[in-house]
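ARCHIVE RECORD
Type: protein–small molecule complex
Small molecule: zinc ion
Source of inputs: curated submission
Record status: active
Notes field left blank by submitter.
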Amino acid sequence: MSDETPMDIDYVANLARIELSDEEKSTYQKQLGDVLKYFDKLQQLDVEKVEPTAHAFPRHNVWDKDEPRTGLPVKEALKNAPQSRQDQVVVPKVIEE
Amino acid sequence: MSNNSPIFKTATELSQDLQGGTVTSVDITQAMIDRIDAVDEQVHAFLHIDKEDALDQAKASDDRRAKGESLSPLDGVPVGMKDVIAVKDQPLTAASKILENYRSPYDATVVRKLKDAGAVVAGRLNLDEFAMGSSTENSAYGPTRNPWNLECVPGGSSGGSSAAVAAREVPLTLGSDTGGSIRQPASLCGVVGMKPTYGMVSRYGLAAFASSLDQIGPFSTTVEDAALLLEIISGHDSLDSTSYPTEVPNYSAELKNSSEPKVLGLPKEFFGPGMDDEVRASIDQVIEYYRSIGYQTKEVSLPTTDLSIPVYYVIATAEASSNLARYDGIRYTSRSERAENAIDVYAKSRGEGFGAEVKRRCILGAYALSSGYYDAYYLRAQKARTLIRQDFEKVFAEVDAILTPTSPTPAFKFGEKSEDPISMYLSDVYTISTNLAGLPGISVPCGLSSSGLPIGMQLIGKAFDESNLLQIANAYDREHLHGRQVPNL
Amino acid sequence: MEYEAVIGLEVHVQLDTNSKMFTRVGTGFGQPPNSLTDPVVLGLPGALPVMNEEAIEKSIKVGLLLDCKIAEVCKWDRKNYFYPDMPKNYQISQYDQPICEGGQVEIEMPGENPSKMGPHRMVELTRIHLEEDVGKLTHYEQDSLVDYNRAGCPLLEIVSEPDMHSPDEVFAYLTSLRNSLVAAGISACDMEKGQLRCDANISVRPRGETKLGTKVELKNLNTISGVRNGVEYEIRRQIRAIEEGTPIIQETRRWNPDQKYTTPMRTKEMAHDYRYFPDPDLMPVKIDQTWIDRVRTGLPEKPFDKQRRYQKDMNLPYSITSALCGDHLLCAYFEEASEMAKSAGKVANWVVNDLLRELSQANKVDEFAEEETEKITPQSCAVSPQMLAELVNLIEDGKLTNNVAKELFPEMFATGKSATELAKEKGLDQQSDDSEIEGICKEAIANDPDAAEKFRGGKEGAINALKGAVMKATRGQANPKVVDDILRRLLS
Ligand SMILES: [Mg+2]
Ligand SMILES: [Zn+2]
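STRUCTURE (tokenized, with ligand):
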């Protein structure tokens, strides 16, 4: 799989929202290509009839009753924010819409 | 420093001394602070220590004890935290630049349990950034050094937690283990480290790396101490939906019961090429010892062993790519000053804030989940994970525990593997499948190499059978106590 | 050429729960910014989700209400994308195993005139899934502010098939859906408060064509009329484009309610690679038959079923039932009052005309009000169902004329006093005294022997002259039925 389709590093870095320098791009491209080649073992495996494991010890219906508890005071909620105003988190202008 | 100093004692001994009134928690905590001042410049196990807060907790413990209101055997005993476990009002950096200025507004469940038990929760311990690594070289705040040889890595990712115990800076610490991150550094630093069964210890308050694999566990110098700490932090937590509702046995009391000799499985796939000769010799001595006390050993097979590394890296990086998306420069992480719009904030803050290994894994994980690749990577890995679990189930029908080395080699030198991800990933080969199967595993020191580096053995137990696993580990440890050897610093 | 529009809707409904979907901090509208957060809502390092049982039960209820197939097992997936209103940069949602599949919503199209019932049909649903809401962004000149109070609230996404063909059908669908959900106590569905939000997928094709045209996703439809106008505009835009030979691009467009047109939204490239995968922090939900049966027993009657019952069993006219059945509180009020009253039909009239009028006047929004005031409902208003039943019975018994009752009702609504009380206070109840009216009737007969003679001779209409005289003498305050009875007795 990795042979035919090398990872499109720009596409994936954008999906992951991580800015990479050109140098990082070429290093990662090579390193991750090797890793993917190593993963080829997985591709050869016959798993047709195998159920996937999502949890080591699966259970069902792990929930709480709908009874509210106190949350964080506004000050605590915002104390780590890089920028805040009017008790809200400030972000640079969202230009998508 | 006198050999009678609290820093050379086990937590169990300190507990007895506190009860006997021969030492106070303030004495212990002060000795710990002095030791950190003396050696941590060399070891760099600690990222942060709030000395005043530690001494305040110690004082409160002494006050309780004076009134006869002691909360548990660990009341007054210091416990250090890997810097991914949330402690209210303390930093939590995950050894990342991106969390440089963050302070947690809440306690992790394990921390709440320790505080309820009166322990002195003190110190933030170094790690590979976001627990990604096997050497603690990937810390944004500089590596931790192995107390046995400062030119060698302490292992990772919980290298600060293992080195701090080995250097006698603190008697007990907590780490987290996703693919060996407690057991491997314990082995490389010559201390005891245990990963409990998945679901035995709450993950609430542990900054997630790979949610389906992560587990918090103890570091100590003896198995007895590990049992003491484990019984306090274990148990069902309604804040963690993957926490398992099961009774927590009194592990330390059960250790004292003499246990019947058991059957140990030796997986042939683990004893192949790649294992260092001295490690092999050391494990052979352990096998001999167990036989000498009546244990049986049995060759068993885990045929999926060679799949465990690809399966692990697909699952762990996929989950990590999503878990680490929250570190974005918006609500609580550092924001890039170059960001001009909201999209910039993400890519630039993350590009600047994450180190190389974190970026590499987030990208690999995003790729494994991306459109067109999910079935080939993530889904396949989840299916292969089922095969790995089934392998262990078959073996555990025949044996009580599996015995292996913890790491194929003793501690390696700085830089030796850091440029080659695959060789670094291979250093986890013995520990990774335990996480994939969700099973408990413990690393117990079993000697030193000719160059004076610790070697560890790993015992893997049945699910939720920590009690047995600890008894088997203790059967060796109480007679050898390699973890009580102190490195020269 | 004739064109046909094909429309599918994605409706997001906020479930009315006390705590959030995956953590137990409280929910609520209009709270101070960021006062409803905790480590889970903010996605702090180490925080973990725990399901809200009530949100799941409410989702099952919606599924049963809309005749969906309820999943035996449903699970949670992470939908990964970055946006400042989403704390974890993934949304916990349901991808390939939603809680409900299939289902339908009954709609009614407008009839020939408001007093005629229009045609009914079923709009097919694709699926319903449960997820968590995001925070709220407010845009300013230089930057944007984020309030996470709404983040993590349980949100139900109801996805229809591309099964609607006009803005009227879309309107009918949303109205019907909202009525059902409000009646079942699922959500207040107030679009202004964001409790119900709607995106529309719209395409256009030549009539008779079976292949779907290129679809456009329309967003920012924030009011019911906005949905109607936005959809209408977008259909016209697409038809015009086809006729002009401009290709329609598959894109997301935004409805601008003030300028009344749609504009393309600048969406991030590759926005649709959401990298869904099962959330390792959460266990699946198993729903057994016992649970489904229990929820089923708590289901309310569907609004259209209720309307049919009123028309068939109570003989109420369509115009009355259509006014009643859009509002479950009004229906509940009506049913309670009509059980105590001698005429259900009369009660229905009073509810639909007088009660509704008083309620809407009382709830008129004061634009300058500092705070939002609690809306007065039929249940919380001063006229209880008993009081209305009493009023209707007084009229039926001839103790109060209709005209007097009409005068009294606003006062009852304003003061909470009963009709008897008010009539006594005003001395209006005297006229109901039969003996007094009998005297007036006798006088009327004496004054107009001609009319009396004609009536006795079989000319039915002649009684009206006598009635008119009595009413005039009582200044319209006598009960016409009582007057009629007395006159007939005296003339027989
Ligand atoms: Mg949608
Ligand atoms: Zn949605």
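CURATOR ANNOTATION: Chain B touches chain A through 73 residues (CB under 8 Å).
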